[in-house]
Specification:
The chain has 288 residues and is of the alpha/beta class. The chain has 2 domains: 128 residues, Isopropylmalate Dehydrogenase; 151 residues, Isopropylmalate Dehydrogenase (3-Layer(aba) Sandwich), CATH 3.40.718. 35% of the residues lie in helices and 22% in strands. The strands form 2 sheets. It has a 10-stranded mixed beta sheet with strand order 2-1-3-12-11-4-5-10-8-9, sandwiched between helices. Strands 6-7 form a two-stranded antiparallel sheet. It is globular.
């Protein structure tokens, strides 16, 4: 019986790189039936919204989705489609491997690490507002819960254990953000005692950024909160050649979305020069 997978081609270069990835996946002989659906800016003329209910229903039903890059129109009142998908399906774990490729001219030649990013909380919780009538000041609220921290940290430890990884490094800013980042660190240290077979350490985020640039081979699995993970995962992509060479998985209890993490690159769309490697790697993560 074939596994049905929701397929979102996306915007810009999305359709061409996704089609290349589909051909590569089908060449493996994997038993997959694709269910094409619309999302992003290209979905608005047809559906009146960048994230149609029919697409959400397809993902609910199939539980697996392969997605190209999506554009959200700026200034039209639409929320980010990527953020909406993560929150709709509670895709709490963002997994971003960064691995050196032979033949790619990069600064390092032995990078092999994974960034695990909490995907639904922190500064991206979506709670922000102006605090005065003249809109001269605004504030955003970062939410970190013990439950959310525990499940992403447990995910990282299980990922390390299941893939023969030796170390989990928790990245935080608990020296300044003593309650929010402090809670995340506290949960991590407590949970590490349940995984004696996996080495554990922690590091402040600014020092982590510097150490990644100095010697990325010292890292194995990095686990961190939403904002820090967003930044560090792009940094690690730069270590191995750029966003066109890394993929991401957004994983929850009842759904998983696999994607290229680069943008829509409308300036080269349709020219036949877009690199499909990132979506192909996303397809490999889907098959895993």
């Amino acid at each position: 019986m074939k596994t049905k997978v929701t397929l979102i081609a996306g915007d810009g270069i999305g359709p061409e790189v996704v089609q290349a990835a589909v051909r590569a996946i089908e060449a493996t002989g994997a038993s997959i039936e694709w269910e094409p659906c619309d999302a992003g800016a290209s979905a608005i003329p047809k559906h009146g919204a960048p994230l149609p209910e029919s697409t959400l229903e397809s993902i609910r039903k199939n539980r697996y989705c392969l997605k190209g890059p999506l554009a959200t129109p700026i200034g039209a009142g639409y929320r980010s489609v990527n953020v909406a998908l993560r929150q709709e399906f509670d895709l709490y774990a963002n997994v971003r491997p960064a691995r050196t490729f032979a033949g790619i001219d990069a600064r390092y030649d032995e990078v092999d690490l994974i960034v695990v990013r909490e995907n639904t909380q922190g500064e991206y919780s979506g709670i922000e507002h102006y605090i005065d009538p003249s809109r001269s000041a605004a504030e955003a609220i970062s939410i970190i819960t013990r439950h959310g921290s525990d499940r992403i940290l447990r995910f990282a430890f299980e990922l390390a254990r299941g893939n023969g990884r030796k170390r989990v490094t928790l990245v935080h800013k608990a020296n300044i953000l003593k309650l929010t980042s402090g809670l995340f660190l506290e949960v991590g240290r407590d949970l590490s005692r349940s995984y004696p077979d996996v080495e554990f350490d922690d590091i402040i985020v600014d020092n982590c950024a510097m150490q990644l640039v100095r010697d990325p081979t010292r890292f194995d699995v990095i686990v961190t909160t939403n904002l820090f993970g967003d930044i560090l995962s792009d940094l690690t992509a730069g270590l191995v050649g750029g966003l066109g060479l890394v993929a991401g998985a957004n994983i929850g209890e009842n759904a998983a979305i696999f994607e290229a993490v680069h943008g829509t690159a409308p300036d080269i769309a349709g020219k036949g020069i877009a690199n499909p490697t990132a979506v192909m790697l996303a397809g490999a993560m889907l098959l895993d």
